[in-house]
């Protein structure tokens, strides 16, 4: 399932959802990605800035991929995203 990511908060919610889906603790994910647990916690909590290489390490550790494409049918720039709905998508079977 592809999820549109429009902000760092959206990405953090997707990472948290995938981590929980895989049954990983923050410490386990941190070990897989070679980052600190504190960094994972801060990122998932909406850290206002994150180093791209660390974000990519987390994405890779969760067997996810980032794709870049045209926004032809996506939400307009600056559109609000319902993070609760995004997290609910990860909890549905």
UniProtKB/TrEMBL annotation:
<feature type="domain" description="HTH cro/C1-type">
    <location>
        <begin position="15"/>
        <end position="71"/>
    </location>
</feature>
<protein>
    <submittedName>
        <fullName>Helix-turn-helix transcriptional regulator</fullName>
    </submittedName>
</protein>
<dbReference type="InterPro" id="IPR010982">
    <property type="entry name" value="Lambda_DNA-bd_dom_sf"/>
</dbReference>
<dbReference type="InterPro" id="IPR001387">
    <property type="entry name" value="Cro/C1-type_HTH"/>
</dbReference>
<dbReference type="Pfam" id="PF13560">
    <property type="entry name" value="HTH_31"/>
</dbReference>
<dbReference type="GO" id="GO:0003677">
    <property type="term" value="F:DNA binding"/>
</dbReference>
<feature type="region of interest" description="Disordered">
    <location>
        <begin position="69"/>
        <end position="93"/>
    </location>
</feature>
<feature type="compositionally biased region" description="Acidic residues">
    <location>
        <begin position="82"/>
        <end position="93"/>
    </location>
</feature>
């Amino acid at each position: 399932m592809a999820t549109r990511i429009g902000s760092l908060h959206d990405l953090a919610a997707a990472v948290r959802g995938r981590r929980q889906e895989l049954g990983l603790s923050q410490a386990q994910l941190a070990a897989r990605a070679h980052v600190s647990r504190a960094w994972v916690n801060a990122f998932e909590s909406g850290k206002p800035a994150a180093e791209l290489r660390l974000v990519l390490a987390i994405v890779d550790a969760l067997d996810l991929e980032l794709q870049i494409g045209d926004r032809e049918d996506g939400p307009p720039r600056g559109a609000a995203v319902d993070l609760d709905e995004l997290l609910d998508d990860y909890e549905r079977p």
